[in-house]
Amino acid sequence: MKYLTLQEQIEIGAQLFQESLKSEFYAQKYQGVKVPQSPNDWFSIPVLEREEIYDNSFPRSKRMLTRPIEDMIIISTGGSSGVARYTTYTHDEWNSFVETQADAMRILGITSADRVANLFIAGHFWPSFLGLHDCIKKIGAVHLPISANIPPEEIVSLCMEFEPTVMVSLPTLFVFLADMAQRDGFRFKNLRMIQYAGEGLSAQAEAHIRKHLNVQEIKSGAYTSADAGLMGYQCDHCPPGVYHVPSDFQLVEIMNFETGQYARDGEVGEILVTNLRRSSTPIIRYRVGDAVIPIGEKCVCGDKNPLIKLAGRSGQDFKIGGGFISMQDIEETIAQFPDFLSLNFQLILEDVENKMRIELHIESGCPPDDRIILDFKNKLFEKIKEFRIGTEKGYISDFVIQIKDLGVLPRSPITGKVKKLEDKRVK
What we know:
Blueprint: H1 6-20, H2 24-29, H3 39-43, H4 50-56, E1 72-76, E2 86-90, H5 91-107, E3 115-118, H6 128-139, E4 142-144, H7 152-162, E5 166-169, H8 171-184, E6 193-196, H9 203-213, E7 217-220, E8 223-225, E9 229-232, E10 242-244, E11 250-256, E12 261-262, E13 269-275, E14 286-295, E15 307-313, E16 318-320, E17 323-325, H10 327-334, E18 345-352, E19 355-364, H11 370-383, H12 385-393, E20 396-405, E21 421-423
Parallel strand pairs: 3-4, 3-5, 5-6, 6-7, 18-21, 19-20
Antiparallel strand pairs: 1-2, 8-9, 10-15, 11-12, 11-13, 13-14, 14-15, 16-17, 18-19
Helix pairs in contact: 5-6, 8-9, 10-11, 11-12
């Protein structure tokens, strides 16, 4: 993709800044802020928070709009990072969004010769199914608009009949299909590539999908958000979680909010994005909520666009007894029991009479017996000592492991994601 220097980005950003002042919201937010001409000027622009988008976007408000509601598409974030927010694009802005996304898919090798199964959920204003349709159309590939709105058995049946070469969906669905394939023994004959988006994919989940769906290439279709569009794309040399920044589409900053400065190379920070091609509802220095690490090295592919590595959702981990617990530790322990436990799980935390109750719900296509559940629990307590110590000391009153049938855990009706952490202590 085209590379822009920071100064070139700021010149475009300055035009966007001036356009944003046509909106009631930005005119008030940027009172006393001068039009940026330099990196220091840009750094002085106030950060845009998610709550501000929610409070000031259509239909709740028109304060962020720089023009009337005409010639537009309205989409939703899906709400996986909180309450669902709606945002508007002009049709030209939407076209730029999907063209950039289609470029990312081309880089990973999807061509007009492919037959692409669209396995996103459609409806509820969620843009993925519709956006993928437009991307496939721009590439010239064959579109199989199967969706994930239908029962998973029908998804399998249709994919067996129409033989896609590429499938695109959330990791949650691909883990579920791999669980079903492990249980039922089916394979998709011509499937060569899986592209995922919307969630991270752990090494354990990737290995499970690769093994049971018998697919060689598993790629991240993009790092994106409905609010801002494409924020990262992969080439064949990018390891999992590493992305090129599309510098002619987004101005990306990585902030260390503890120091108030930009994160150094190799240091975890939070990503701020400015969409350089969107002026109807400007998105300027938006705090997405993702933890990101800037990588100072250039990619061997020769692309000059900088590299970043995702480090998880800000706030994804949780705290017990003064220590932070990573959800990755739970997933790694579950992955030690691939014959019995699915990587689709949910951890529920709640306070009951001043003590903590923990429930871990795990899907399974081959339910384990009590001996295996005990072995799993012991390994989990060995991995996460706060669970063991809290139980021994009585701070944790109950630690319950429940095995669920495949597909039983609640999914978002909009995106299809499993919410892996339900912390009821957080009001």
